[in-house]
Amino acid sequence: MAKQSRIGRTHPAGRKAAKAVVSRRSAAKGKPVEEARYHHGALHEALLQAAEKLLERDGLQGLTLRAVAREAGVSHAAPTHHFGDLTGLVSELAAIGFRQFNAAMAAAGSSDPSALAKGMAKAKAYVAYARAHPGMYGLMFRSERLDMTRPSLHEAAHAAFAGLAGAIGASRHEQIAAEALSLDQAAAIARVWSLVHGFTMLLLDGRLTDILHRLPAGTDAETLLDAMLRSTVGRPPPP
Length: 239
Known about the structure:
Layout lengths: L1 H7 L3 H17 L4 H4 L3 H19 L6 H8 L5 H6 L2 H23 L6 H18 L1 H7 L10 H21 L11 H22 L4 H6 L6 H10 L9
Helix pairs in contact: 4-5, 7-8, 7-9, 7-10, 8-9, 8-10, 8-11, 10-11, 11-13
């Protein structure tokens, strides 16, 4: 009985030896120990998290498959296995950005009662997201680096445009179907999008600093955007 008791209990030295065996087996397969601990789905998400961290820290120029693998602590082949190539990786990352962006827009428009107030709140949330995630925002609009045919990215980007069209339609007191626009509807969407996106890029690049310094004390970028939007958003369609 005593012998069975000793066999049934794992001595600390035995546990250490077992871990060493796992490590050797992982190394033999060409995978770091850290990678062996990931479930397939968890590794996929870990790689995307590492990519987002690199993007915000080092910019798009620092985002490579090897850099992502190093950041995640896995083999250099892992990103290729999950995403195919760098275009696949950044496309999936941009899809995450659009989903985060869409969620921010939806949350911003949920509390205001009027259509005009909702539209302006969404525009401000647009700028706020870009300021909080400049690397991700920049990637989302780098079409030459993305594969827009990937289902996840296509769906997320389409949802973003549909949300914009819906907000403009509500401010104009009309329904806008994103799939079929009249010229006037398209002009209204492009006008507001150009204003907000252009304002965002100028703000991120520090090009509005001089204008803000010339304004009365206490006037910030959000106040300036609010004044711009009030003269643009909410114009009713012509009779």
